[in-house]
Amino acid sequence: MTPILQIADDIPMPVLLITAGEFRMTWINQAGQSWLGSSLKSLSQKSIDDLFFESVELRSIIEKTLSYATPVNMHNLIVLPRGRNEVKCHVSSFIHADQIGLCFQLQGRQTQKDDVFGDGASALGRLLAHEIKNPLAGIHGAAQLLRDDLESEEGLSLLDLIGSEIDRIRRLADRMERLGDVSPSEFSKINIHEILRHARKVLQSGLTTDISFTEDYDPSLPETYGHEDSLTQAIMNLIKNASEAFKPDSDDPLIRLETSYRASGAGLPIEIRVIDNGSGIPDHLRDQIFHPFITDKPQGQGLGLALVSKIVAAHNGLIEVQSRPGQTIFSILLPMSQRNPS
User: Fold this and answer.
1) Exposed/middle/buried for 322, CB within 10 Å: 0-12, 13-18, 19+?
2) Can you say how many angstroms the Cα of residue 312 is from the centroid of all Cα atoms in its chain?
3) What is the bridge-based pairing of β-strands 99-106 and 188-190?
4) What Å distances lie between residue 104 and 37, 63, 249, 257, CA to CA?
5) Interatomic CA distance for residues 92 and 71, integer angstroms
6) Helix (H) / strand (E) containing 81
7) Angle between helices 228-243 and 192-206 (to 10 degrees)
8) H or E segment at 324?
9) How far apart are CA 98 and CA 38, in angstroms?
């Protein structure tokens, strides 16, 4: 089973894979087997017509995904599995290797907006902890050897950055089994601006394209309580997402990092904004952008923004997005100083 299928097996929504040629099912996760009332073994190689009555619209989704090589979403589709009751779904299709994936978000059985990732976060944690922890020691050793040969202040500064990132990744790997499930006992007083500056420095040092950054922070913002590593990861994911929004021929690509005080009745006055002047989020993805497997990137798996949403929710915050061609704004809203969020 590939890593992405290991994650999908724990997603609390039916997910299945269909061959691009004959539209036959090759794999289905645990939630899908429960929904269709059959095991993977008995469902394997059945055609989509064998699985669902009136499968014309499902075929249409698959064909659009194949034609445009991009995920496709269809909202409020009535789906009728054979031998089961009909149900209204949001259906998302995506490309996985040489097959098409279908993810069914069953209406009336949705996970809450603040927990869109569900048990998949734990599955992702187990996978990443295994894949990440082994090479960390080698990277650390190589950095130490490089330090002996470097004399420039800039080179030594970059090695310090590598060292701090190794330590942060190691801490994250140690708690991967519960990725995104931040415990209030781990919260401490943090400076949002220090997190933003660190995240920008790390991401900017690794970019292969010439993207400009600006920072506009409100110095009057107070410190807040939160989990520093998780919030750092969330902001890094947003900056990385912004950096991937530019086409190769984009003019003057720019990412703006901003903070401000937002007066609102929601009790979330600290606002963090990551703004890019890229191509924008396609209309058909905008409503589902924080759900797993929703992406328009050819090599993307659609997991980064789902994790951001989960981390922000763990801090009793909100995340918002506004997008049009030429401007996308992701806003994180956080409480001012809530020591024990529930």
Assistant:
1) middle
2) 12
3) unpaired
4) 15, 17, 36, 35
5) 7
6) strand 72-81
7) 40
8) strand 318-324
9) 25
The residue whose two tokens read 């724990």 is: 10
Q: Where are the domains of the chain?
A: 3-110, 120-177, 184-334
Is residue 67 predicted with pLDDT exceeding 50? yes
Residue 325: pLDDT above 80? yes
Overall pTM > 0.70 = no
Q: Please tell me whether residue 42 adopts helix, strand or coil conformation.
A: helix
Give Cα separations from 226 to 190, 194, 312, 334 (angstroms).
7, 13, 10, 9
Q: Residue 100's CB: how many other CB atoms inside 10 A?
A: 22
Asked if 161 contacts 153 with a C-beta cutoff of 8 angstroms, the reply is: no
Run of H or E including 260: strand 254-261
Dist CA 164 CA 150 (whole Å): 18
pLDDT higher at 125 or 150? 150
Residue-wise pLDDT for 200-227, tens only, equals 998 888 776 789 999 999 999 988 889 8
Summary mean pLDDT of the chain = 80
Please answer whether residues 92 and 294 qualify as being in contact, where contact means their C-beta atoms are separated by less than 8 angstroms. yes
Torsion of CA 176, 181, 183, 186, to 10 degrees: 40
CB 51 within 8 A of CB 40: no
Query: Which pLDDT score is estimated for 155?
Result: 80
- Under 8 Å between Cβ of 13 and 103: yes
Tokens of 156: 């030594």
Return the pLDDT at 258.
96
Are 81 and 62 in contact by the 8 Å Cβ rule? The answer is no
Fold of 184-334: Heat Shock Protein 90 (3.30.565)
- Report yes or no: 73 and 285 within 8 Å, Cβ to Cβ: yes
- Say how far apart CA 6 and CA 303 lie, in whole Å: 13
Token pair recorded at residue 53: 């009555």
**Beta strand 212-216 with 254-261: parallel, antiparallel or unpaired?**
parallel
Nearest to 238, CA basis, from 331, 173, 301: 331
Span of 3-7, 68-72, 137-141 with lowest mean pLDDT: 3-7
The CATH topology of domain 3-110 is Beta-Lactamase (3.30.450)
- The whole-angstrom separation of Cα 296 and Cα 94 is 9
